TrEMBL record:
Residues where Fe cation binds: 96, 98, 159
Name of the protein described by the UniProt record: PKHD-type hydroxylase
Keywords linked to the UniProt accession: Dioxygenase, Iron, Metal-binding, Oxidoreductase, Vitamin C
Top EC category: oxidoreductase
UniProt entry tagged with the keyword Ribonucleoprotein: no
Taxonomic path: Bacteria, Pseudomonadati, Pseudomonadota, Gammaproteobacteria, Steroidobacterales
Length: 226
């Protein structure tokens, strides 16, 4: 399941993040790449221990925790501290798959990457190219969202970022370990949650709501690892 989460950050939060990021010291993006992806990765990244990365990373996690759509779609158990990347003209990231397990730098914590996320911090008008292409069962999906919006996609998918031909694309990217490991089970829970919310809104106090809510929780109880 590929899902867009709009307005994770407000315009003001994006502007403040961009002010800090545009003045930051960027490094070669290969610092966090595995062997396979290092060969196709051409971008820049903020070092994970840079003060700007740490502060912005905390802001992104706080924003995610306030987003009901993110929580419902991802059912997060652990969030890898968000990283920041920048692609300028000529940069691209070829087809790759993300590592299944990531160590959180400076800790003994491991995150299993069930979901990958890109939070766009540049508006589509600021650059040409730079689409995130995710290979899905329905074929390749091309994703380019407004600044402050985020896409969640299964970390098991092959994906790439098209070459930038003008301007710069700045984003935050990270991974989520979900309480529900399987994409198919998570997608069904998300659908059921949305349907229950719609029923609640359109037909308040319908007796089926409590029954369906029971089914949601019983499936979650069956599938969740906590
Ligand atoms: O820049 C992006 O949108 C994706 C980055 C990515 O795929 C990665 O760092 O593994
Ligand atoms: Fe990736």
């Amino acid at each position: 399941m590929i899902i867009a989460i709009p307005n994770v950050l407000s315009i003001e939060q994006v502007t403040e993040a961009r002010r800090l990021l545009d003045a930051a010291d960027w490094a070669d993006g290969r610092i966090t790449a595995g062997h396979q992806s290092a060969r196709v990765k051409e971008n820049q990244q903020l070092p994970e221990d840079s003060p700007v990365a740490r502060k912005l990373s905390e802001n992104v996690v706080a924003a995610l925790e306030r987003s009901p759509l993110f929580v419902s779609a991802a059912l997060p158990s652990k969030i890898f501290p968000p990283l920041f990347n920048r692609y300028q003209a000529g940069h691209a990231f070829g087809l790759h798959v993300d590592n299944a397990i990531r160590m959180v730098r400076g800790t003994a914590h491991r995150v299993r990457t069930d979901l990958s996320a890109t939070l766009f911090l540049s508006g589509p008008e600021e650059y040409d190219g730079g689409e995130l292409i995710v290979e899905d069962t329905y074929g390749p999906q091309s994703i380019k969202l407004p600044a402050g919006h985020m896409v969640l996609y299964p970390a098991s998918s092959l994906h790439k970022v098209q070459a930038i031909t003008r301007g710069a694309r700045v984003a935050s990217f990270f991974w989520i370990q979900s309480m529900v490991r399987g994409d198919a089970e998570r997608a069904m829970l998300f659908d059921l949650d949305l349907a229950i919310q719609r029923l609640n809104r359109d037909v308040p106090d319908h007796p089926s709501t409590v029954q369906l809510t029971g089914v949601y929780h019983n499936l979650l109880r069956r599938w969740a690892e906590v």
